[in-house]
Amino acid sequence: MMLQVDSPARLAEVRKVCESAFARQKSRFLVCAGTGCVLGGALEVYQEFVRLLKERGCPTSVELLFEGRETDAGAAYSGCHGFCQLGPLVRFEPKGIFYTQVTAADVPEIITTALDKNTVVERLLYQNPDGSKSLREEDVPFYRHQQRVVLAYCGLINPEDIREYFAIGGYQALADVLTRYTPEEVIDAVTRSGLRGRGGAGFPTGRKWAAARRAEGEPKYVVCNGDEGDPGAFMDRSVLEGDPHSVLEGMTIAAYAVGAGHGYIYVRAEYPLAVERLKIAIAQARQHRVLGQDIMGTGFNFDIEIFRGAGAFVCGESTALVRSLEGFRGMPKAMPRPRTTEEGIGGKPTLLNNVKSFAYVPQIITRGPEWFASMGTETSKGTAVFALTGKAKNTGLIEVPMGITLREIIFNIGGGTSTGQEFKAVQTGGPSGGCLPKELLDMPVDFDSLTSAGSMMGSGGMVVMDQDTCMVDVARYFLEFTVNESCGQCTPCRVGTYQMLKILEDITQGRGKPTDLSLLEDIGKAIIAGSICGLGQTAPNPVLSTLRYFRSEYEAHIGEKSCPALYCKELIAYWIDPDKCAEPCRLCLENCPMEAIVGKWRATPVIIQEKCIKCGGCFDVCPDKYRAVRKVTGPERLNLLERGLPARGRNGNGGG
């Protein structure tokens, strides 16, 4: 059914029609169709719901609901719920019952219990650490401690149906802006909200919009930066997949405020589902006259097209992104340079904001800037969206108020470490962020606090680490990423990061020197001072922060040839303790890919150090009741190597 929004007043009627139509579904099964759940089989789960509901005579076409027919149940996609590790996820409305790890084989039981028995499938409910079950999504600890604004509707509406967005009040903020606000009043509202850019730099959004409004030159452009390049980050992708219309509406409001007529969404080509749903959303928005020519009959024109980026991390930087949009290699402009609000695409004023920044805007207009400013801290308003990953028990996408502590995120939402090991550090801000120790667990999470601690908010990555994590290797890993992603244009970044990486490689491989630590610090400071863009200026952060908080680990690697976390292969050795290997099972010997473990029957096996590739296979297969295979480092390792392969072990076994 086509619902033309030919005037702002007509939007209210369209909303009522949509609300009424969807209300005719007495109940509904929402299947999470974010990328994570899709990979886990969510589409098969959805198709099974559709098939079985049709067999029960429940119309699955929403079109029929607009004709006044009522149905017992329906099924639909939704966006990402965030709790990705437990997908595919299914939510049963209107009760909000929350099922985890659902397969197509579970669907018949879910439908029967919901529609016929008015009960639930206990085994598919979330199980709390104390053994109890959470019936509703809101009761799960992972969600209970969150405050969802940008993600509020990602798991509740079908992102491929604009009518569901209308039903929850979608595009009302745009209608209000076009009829009741001047461009200056829109900018004033965004300014008073205290919204800062969520792309990493945290620049005040209102100031940027005001600068774009003042800038001379026509035409003007609005660009949405969806070039999410951090390893393990999926915040922007999930918003684009789960609630694309909020981004389109925010961009259109921004275009009205700054005087732009055309927009681009720069999204990574590696996000095919986000691209597909954006295409659908843009087409639907044009059809319903909330995007394109003569929006809502007001005479305002603004259209959006999608630009697929090639996956370069440096294109997250504004001038590099603009060059990529223009068809050139994505490389930042050298300093000094005008801001993109003054000179962007084709040398014309260009407003560039992150996906999440635009998604906040409709709610700021509808609920008021004071509402948004009431959340967060004095200098960091609103909420923050993070991809919580690493060795956390509960991983996924979370949204929390600014100012929440690291402890609350990692333990209340994340559930602590997944390994049972003691928490050691958390890395925030992606590969350009810093690693913060357990001593800072009670530090508030906001732009300024993280920066002062040697890290950054970034675009929202948060990686949890335990005691088995080597902080020197973590610094090496993230620096290797930035070395590979550097555009190579400026010498400090191109050469400096490479030099730092080689030093870190030497340290993790046992070739480090005492002078390396001061050299790392000096090079890092030079890179920060001399690089022309944010990638280079923040690239040393993982190294400098780990030197600041975990210096003793660097010193152990260099002075003792020891890796305290027992991780760096060149600094560890595997050894079979004959006192613990009381009943040799020979699993280690049978599973060694290099035949580096030898030993006679019923005798303790011995590892030939020269042949061992340190794959850890023997350690993994050793029964827990024995734990005879040990990892050793430092003096223990050196002593083992000096002794070489003993002619006879304690139990008299030789090398045969």
UniProtKB/TrEMBL annotation:
InterPro entries for the chain: 4Fe4S_Fe-S-bd, 4Fe4S_Fe_S_CS, NADH-UbQ_OxRdtase_51kDa_CS, Nuo51_FMN-bd, Nuo51_FMN-bd_sf, Nuop51_4Fe4S-bd, Nuop51_4Fe4S-bd_sf, Thioredoxin-like_sf
SUPFAM superfamilies per record: 4Fe-4S ferredoxins (SSF54862), Nqo1 FMN-binding domain-like (SSF142019), Nqo1 middle domain-like (SSF142984), Nqo1C-terminal domain-like (SSF140490), Thioredoxin-like (SSF52833)
Stored PROSITE patterns: 4FE4S_FER_1, 4FE4S_FER_2, COMPLEX1_51K_2
EC number: 1.6.99.5
Keywords: 4Fe-4S, Iron, Iron-sulfur, Metal-binding, Oxidoreductase
Domain 4Fe-4S ferredoxin-type: 572-602, 603-632
GO molecular function: 4 iron, 4 sulfur cluster binding; FMN binding; metal ion binding; NADH dehydrogenase (ubiquinone) activity; oxidoreductase activity
Gene3D superfamilies per the UniProt record, alphabetical: 3.10.20.600, 3.30.70.20, 6.10.250.1450, Glutaredoxin, NADH-ubiquinone oxidoreductase 51kDa subunit, NADH-ubiquinone oxidoreductase 51kDa subunit, iron-sulphur binding domain
One Pfam family matching this protein: Complex1_51K
PANTHER family xref list: NADH-QUINONE OXIDOREDUCTASE SUBUNIT F
Similarity remark: Belongs to the complex I 51 kDa subunit family.
Protein name: NADH dehydrogenase (Quinone)
Protein source organism: Desulforudis audaxviator (strain MP104C)
